[in-house]
Design brief:
InterPro entries: Znf_BED. This is BED-type domain-containing protein. Keywords: Metal-binding, Zinc, Zinc-finger. With 75 residues, this protein is α+β, with helices and mostly antiparallel strands. It has one domain. It is built from two helices and three strands; from the N terminus they run βββαα. It has a three-stranded antiparallel β-sheet, covered by helices on one side. It starts with 23 loop residues before the first strand and ends with a helix. The protein binds zinc ion (ZN). The site of zinc ion (ZN) has 7 residues, from loops.
Amino acid sequence: MASNQEDNNIGNKTIPLILDGTFFKIIRTESENVQGECTTCKRRIKGRNGSTTNFLNHLKTKGHSIQGYKEYKNK
Ligand SMILES: [Zn+2]
């Protein structure tokens, strides 16, 4: 019996919602650092795995739709 494992995680860590490709897509990860590209303005943001503060701040300071993210998160 083969285990049907769908493993889309990077480095066995769960991808934060904000980095799942809707608002940011992951460019690279290095240990606990992660680099994501904003899907709106293509700017690259560095952050840490498990901390979405930098990415959220980018949405805020650039005037991207933070409201959209909140609604997306609460779905
Ligand atoms: Zn942006």
